[in-house]
Amino acid sequence: MDFLVTNGLALLFYLFAFLAVGAAVLVITLRNPMYSAISLLVTFLSVAALFVLRNAEFVAMVQIFVYGGGIMVLFLFVIMLVNLHRLREIQILGEQWPLAAVIAILFIALIAFVVFTTSFGPVNPIPERLVDVEGEALGNVQAVAWSLYREYLLPFEIASLFLLVAMIGAVVLARKE
Amino acid sequence: MKGALWLIPALPFLGVLLNGVLLWRRIPRKVVAVIACGTVGLACLIGVGAVASYMASPEYAAHEPFEQVLYLWIPAGMHHLGDGSFADFSVEMGFLLDPLSAVMLFVVTFVGFWIHVYSVGYMHDDPGFQRYFVYLNLFMGAMLLLILGNNFLVLFVGWEGVGLCSYLLIGFWFKEEFPPYAGRKAFIVNRIGDAGFLVGLFALVSVFGTLNYRELFGKISANPHLVEGDYVLGLSLASFVGICLFIGAVGKSAQIPLHVWLPDAMAGPTPVSALIHAATMVTAGVYMVVRSNVLYQLAPGVSEMIALIGAITAIFAATMGLAQTDIKKVLAYSTVSQLGYMFLAAGVGAYWVAIFHLATHAFFKGLMFLGSGSVIHAMSGEQDMRRMGGLRKVLPTTYWTFLVGTLAISGVPGLAGFFSKDQILAATFEGHALLWVVGLITAGLTACYMFRLLFMTFWGEFRGSEEQRSHLHESPPMMTVPLVVLAVGAVVSGWIGLPKLGHWDWNWLSHFLEPVVAVVGGHGEEAHHLSLGLELTLMALSVGVAGLGIFVAWRTYGGDQGLVGGERWAARFPALHRLLFNKYYVDELYDATVVRGTWATARGLYRFDAKVVDGVVNGSRHVTVGTSFLSGFFDKYVVDGLVNLIGWLLHRGSQFFRRLQTGLVSQYALVVIVGMFVLVLFYVVATLQG
Amino acid sequence: MDIGTAHYLVLSAILFAIGMLGIVTRRNMIVVLMSIELVLNSVNLNLIAFSYQFSDLTGQIMAVFTIAVAAGEAAVGLGILVALFRLRSTTELDRAMELKG
């Protein structure tokens, strides 16, 4: 029990990390696109959990709603629309996979090297406890809301406009003539 | 009014501008005629006004000329004079009005005007009507420049100008064969004279640094020794310049040996012969000599030579005139002969007499030329007197005016020729006895050949064809009025120079021209101190000689004899007749020597050019071909090779790079990622190092 | 050991690499689009990690916006895919070679 208490967070991290990576690998290797989509969903959920571990609850929820509930659904719809699940690729690996693999490994190595040789300093673990004019925030959501609707109001509006445009675009593109 | 002096030569040039440039082929003949005659007539009137204004001015009273400078024409620089000092050689465009130029002015514009009017009638049917008047006006402008200029260079401009117009007008009917040849002959012979003239001018400039009359003659008069010392070839400066300038006069005024162009110049329209080759251009030489009298007085040897040449010319031309059958040629030789008289007068120092004869000659010779034009017109273009005859019945006005002219030239008392010729003989008598004899004989010859012309043309039976007879008609008033005017002039113009008989001195002209003839050194005015008896004897002699000439002519050609008398004389002296008829073979002599010599030289030079010069040129051709071949080779292989290489490189290079454009999105994505990775790598390395 | 920002960053790098491999390698358009979403997710992880590290809410805000943008981009991308499929009756990316030079 002590082991869990002391290493619980780490365990959770590793659990969801491996889950995410594994599911990601499955995404890119499975032949059936439907299976790839499901794996992607697993990845999203794992990432959402990882967000929670870093006290980003609001973002985690957004991740689940938007990615899992929106984008995945979209993907699945399109896959079924196009009858892709019936088509199977003959060869999943493209022509450039050696070079890409090399680059991938190199990239990871580089980042690892950089990251582990940099000291990041202590962490203030309670980022959501903001002290504001109106007093302390009551949680991550409120903190994000306060930030979103004050400093980042303009980007927020622009993002909504962007979504409108994307929606119109998607509709127009997919329309039957 | 004398301030309008510059207008006088300017007006005819304006006529040229209008008729020849601005309104060329755009206006009817009437307008052309009005412009042409109008400018000359206006110039004449302005001339009269200017002279009157001059005579009322203080300059005239002080025996000074009136000078009008328009602008500085040639402002040349410092010039080293012969005696070591410096002169600022410059030439103005300026005009001089003094008694000499006044007389010339009146003669030229008055006679010129009436000849213009006559031309309107004479050239009536000619297609080149407008061109004719352009040339005629151009001539008038140049002639007026010549006589009104205040320095030798302006004179020379006019001199050359009239030479040019002479060429243009002699060769007026250029589509025929002979007129252009005659025009060229006139111009080239003139040119020979002009070469001498120019040398004389150069000598004057180099010694005195100026060509302005007043400056030049002023310097010479003040210090005659300047021109009397040895200059070149054993001659004094005065002699040298005198000879050179006189060479120009010989050419321009058709004296022996450069007289050959004048008879051939008759190929031009008759009014041209009247104006240019009787009244004005040919007299330019006389004018020039009189203008330079200061110089000639200081070169007595040259003056003698001038008188001698004048006398020789007078008699030889008169003999040639005796045998000619073309009516205009007779008049041409007569002109040469009378010009000889003028130079004779100038040579013996009687300068005013030369001008006097110039003026009277302008009237009666101009008259006779116009009269001959009237005859030719009536004869439908025929000029051979052997085919004329009896024309006095058909052409009364022409006949009577012609008679006046003939009487005048023969020296019949009362008419102009008598007075002027008589003065010449009187001036020659003293000291130049031989020349006087020559002059006297010539007077007789003159009367003879002139009356021969008159009788052959107007008396006897008509010897022409029926075709010509049917067209015989008197000329229209446009042509006969000038004849009458000039006839009046031929009578009246003599009265300005009446001889001094004893105490009775009514000689206006000589007094008028006195200021022009400077008294230089010890050489004073001609000592015209013949006694009354001697004067009258001389007059009687000249009249007698003239009468003898007329008598001979009448006996040979008069009445109804026609050509018989002339043929009998020719039969009696066949060799002599041939000699005279062929003008002493002078033309043939020139042709054999000068002309052929020039042709041979030209041919030799041509051969040199063809062989040597062209040989060099052809050689250079080979060099060029060789170098251009090398150059081409280089261009083809080296230059083009480089260019082609670059093209090939680009081609292969682009083929290589083309393989990047696979169109595969995934490949593009890979490239992007590789690039991104490299960037990150660089950034990391940089940060780590820094 | 304690899980620090470093772990998250490495994880993010791994996910990024996998996503990149998917983009470059797979021929099926849908899978490529999915790989793109994977990459975006890895970026979000990175943002959140740093936000936690520096106690700065900006990272989370940016993550929110990233998610929004990803949603829009997925929609449009799928629209294109659908249109392309209608045109060519295949979803193979290699067939869309109009850019071949």
Q: What features would you highlight for this structure?
A:
heterotrimer, B: 690 residues, mainly alpha, 28 helices, 6 strands, C: mainly alpha, Helix Hairpins, 3 helices
Secondary structure: elements and pairs:
The complex is a heterotrimer of chains A (177), B (690) and C (101).
Chain A: H1 2-29, H2 33-53, H3 57-81, H4 97-117, E1 131-132, E2 135-136, H5 140-150, H6 153-174
Antiparallel strand pairs in A: 1-2
Chain B: H1 7-22, H2 29-55, H3 58-61, E1 66-74, E2 78-80, E3 86-88, E4 91-97, H4 99-122, H5 129-148, H6 152-170, H7 178-208, H8 213-222, H9 225-228, E5 230-232, E6 235-236, H10 237-252, H11 261-264, H12 270-279, H13 284-291, H14 293-297, H15 300-321, H16 327-347, H17 351-378, H18 396-410, H19 416-429, H20 433-458, H21 466-471, H22 477-492, H23 508-512, H24 532-557, H25 564-572, H26 574-581, H27 586-658, H28 665-689
Antiparallel strand pairs in B: 1-4, 2-3, 5-6
Helix pairs in contact in B: 1-2, 1-5, 2-4, 2-5, 4-5, 4-12, 4-17, 4-22, 5-6, 6-7, 7-10, 10-13, 10-15, 12-17, 15-16, 15-20, 16-17, 16-19, 16-20, 17-18, 17-19, 17-22, 18-20, 18-22, 19-20, 19-24, 20-24, 25-26
Chain C: H1 5-25, H2 29-54, H3 58-88
Report on this structure:
The complex is a heterotrimer of chains A (177), B (690) and C (101). By secondary structure, chain A is mostly helical. In chain A, 72% of the residues lie in helices and 2% in strands. Chain A has two domains: 1-89, Up-down Bundle (Four Helix Bundle (Hemerythrin (Met), subunit A)), CATH 1.20.120; 130-177, no CATH class. In chain A, strands 1-2 form a two-stranded antiparallel sheet. In chain A, helix 1 (2-29) packs antiparallel against helix 2 and helix 2 packs antiparallel against helix 3 (57-81). Chain B has a two-stranded antiparallel ribbon with strand order 1-4. With 690 residues, chain B is mainly α. Chain C has one domain: Helix Hairpins (Orthogonal Bundle), CATH 1.10.287.3510. The mean pLDDT of chain C is 86. The termini of chain C are far apart. The interface between A and B is small, with 10 and 10 residues.
What's the number of helices of chain A? Answer: 6
Oligomeric state of this protein: heterotrimer
Sequence stretches where pLDDT stays below 50 over 5 or more residues of chain C: none
Instruction: Report the sheet with the most strands of chain A, covering strand number, pairing sense and barrel closure.
Output: 2 strands, antiparallel
Rounded Rg of chain C: 17 Å
Largest sheet of chain C: none
Total domains of chain A, how many?
A: 2
The class by helix and strand makeup of chain C works out as: mainly alpha
Work out the number of β strands of chain C. 0
The outline of chain A comes out as globular
Order of H and E elements of chain A: HHHHEEHH
Q: Please give the alpha-carbon distance between the first and last residues of chain A.
A: 64 Å
Order of helices and strands of chain C: HHH
The CATH topology of the largest domain in chain A turns out to be Four Helix Bundle (Hemerythrin (Met), subunit A)
Mean pLDDT of chain C: 86
The CATH topology of chain C is given as Helix Hairpins
Please report the first level of CATH classification, the CATH class of chain C.
Mainly Alpha
